[in-house]
Write a structure and sequence with these properties.
The protein is α+β, with helices and mostly antiparallel strands. Helices cover about 20% and strands about 30% of the residues. A hairpin with a 5-residue loop joins strand 10 (about 180-185) and strand 11 (about 190-195). The longest helix has 14 residues, at about 5-20. It is elongated and about 70 Å long.
C-alpha cells in the first residue's frame, strides 16, 4: 500500500482497485527461499507465484489499447497524432475557449474549441500542464519510473500448459532487482522489473531508447527463471520494451479537477468548480486502470455523481 494513505482514504483506494482491476483469482503458492545456479552464477531468490484460470487470465495491454482506439474512432473521436498542445485561448471573459495543437508531421497549428480540458499525458502531464498554464499556482507532482521489459517465448511453455492456467511470478534477489514474469495466452511470456528513477525523460515518447545492457540482463534472468539449460539461451525474444511510467509521491494516481483559482493569470473556465481535469500517476498499472479511471473522469467532467469517493485522488 502506498505511503501517505490511511484511514478512510485507504479503504477508498482498496475499493477503487477492486473496481478497476480484474484481480487474479486462484491459489497463491508461496515458495520459500530458492537457490538458482547456472555456471558461476549462484544467487538466493525469493519467489511467489499466482495462477489464474478462465476469464481471469492476463490480457494483452497492446491489444486492449488498439481496441479502445479503434472503438473511439468508430464513435467519431478525431485523433490528432503526432501532435502536441502548445497553448490555450480564452474569450472576452477570460474563460477557456480553445486549445491550440501543433502537428509534428507538417507543422500547421489548429485551434480546437473547448470548455473543458482533460490532460492525461502520463509522465509528460506536468510539462503539458505547465505549457498550457505557465502562471498556474499548482504543480502536478508526477515523475518517471522508467522500466525495461521483454516479451519472450520458451520451448518449455506450450499450449498444453495454457489449458490449465496462466501464471504470475514475483521474485527478489539479493541485489534488490525484482523481476516479474507473466505468462499470456498465445505462448508469450512478459518479464519486467528492471526500473530506474534516474533516467531522463525525453521530450517525446518516441525518443525513449532501449538500453542494450538492460535488455541483456533481462534475457539472462528470463533464462534462469524459466529453467533454461545451463549456459544455454533458448528463448525467442518477441519484443523489447522501454517506457517511462508516471508515479506520484504517495503511489496513488491523480483523478482530479483543477480549481480555476489555481490556473494562473486571467484564466478560468465556465464550469462550476473548474473545467480542467488531470488523470495521471498510475505507475505500471495505467492500462489496467484505464477503463475505470476514464469512467471516473467522465463523471467528474459531466458533473454527475462519481462511482467512488475521489478525494484520495485529488492533487
Amino acid at each position: 500500500m502506498p505511503q501517505g494513505v490511511c484511514g478512510r482514504e485507504r479503504l477508498d483506494l482498496l475499493r477503487y482497485l477492486a473496481l478497476l482491476v480484474q484481480t487474479t483469482r486462484g491459489p497463491r503458492i508461496k515458495r520459500d527461499v530458492t537457490e538458482h545456479q547456472s555456471g558461476s552464477y549462484r544467487r538466493r531468490v525469493k519467489m511467489s507465484r499466482r495462477s489464474a484460470k478462465g476469464k481471469q487470465r492476463p490480457k494483452y495491454p497492446q491489444r486492449l489499447c488498439q481496441f479502445l482506439l479503434e472503438e473511439c474512432i468508430k464513435r467519431g473521436v478525431h485523433l490528432h497524432h503526432p501532435a502536441r498542445a502548445t497553448a490555450v485561448s480564452t474569450d472576452v471573459r477570460d474563460e477557456l475557449a480553445s486549445v491550440r495543437i501543433e502537428s509534428l508531421d507538417d507543422g500547421p497549428e489548429t485551434d480546437l474549441p473547448c470548455t473543458r480540458l482533460v490532460i492525461t499525458a502520463g509522465v509528460w502531464t506536468p510539462a503539458v500542464f505547465r505549457q498550457l498554464f505557465p502562471t498556474a499556482t499548482v504543480d502536478i507532482p508526477v515523475t518517471s519510473l522508467a522500466g525495461h521489459s521483454l516479451v519472450v517465448r520458451s520451448p518449455r511453455w506450450t499450449a498444453a500448459h495454457e489449458r490449465d492456467s496462466c501464471h504470475a511470478v514475483f521474485a527478489t534477489d539479493s541485489n534488490g532487482f525484482s523481476p516479474e514474469l507473466f505468462s499470456r495466452l498465445g505462448g508469450d511470456i512478459y518479464i519486467a522489473g528492471l526500473n530506474s528513477t534516474d533516467t531522463p525523460v525525453p521530450k517525446r515518447a518516441t525518443d525513449a531508447a532501449v538500453d542494450p545492457a538492460a535488455v541483456e540482463l533481462l534475457r539472462t534472468v528470463s533464462s534462469r527463471l524459466l529453467r533454461a539449460p545451463d549456459d544455454e539461451v533458448d528463448l525467442e525474444v518477441v519484443r523489447e520494451g522501454f517506457c517511462h511510467r508516471p508515479v506520484t509521491p504517495s503511489g496513488v494516481p491523480f483523478l482530479a479537477r483543477i480549481p480555476d483559482a489555481t490556473l494562473g493569470h486571467r484564466c478560468s473556465t465556465r464550469i462550476v468548480g473548474g473545467g480542467v481535469f488531470v488523470g495521471a500517476g498510475h505507475g505500471p498499472w495505467g492500462i489496467s486502470l484505464a477503463l475505470g479511471s476514464g469512467k471516473v473522469l467522465s463523471h467528474l467532467i459531466e458533473g454527475s455523481p462519481t462511482s467512488i469517493d475521489v478525494k484520495p485522488f485529488e492533487i
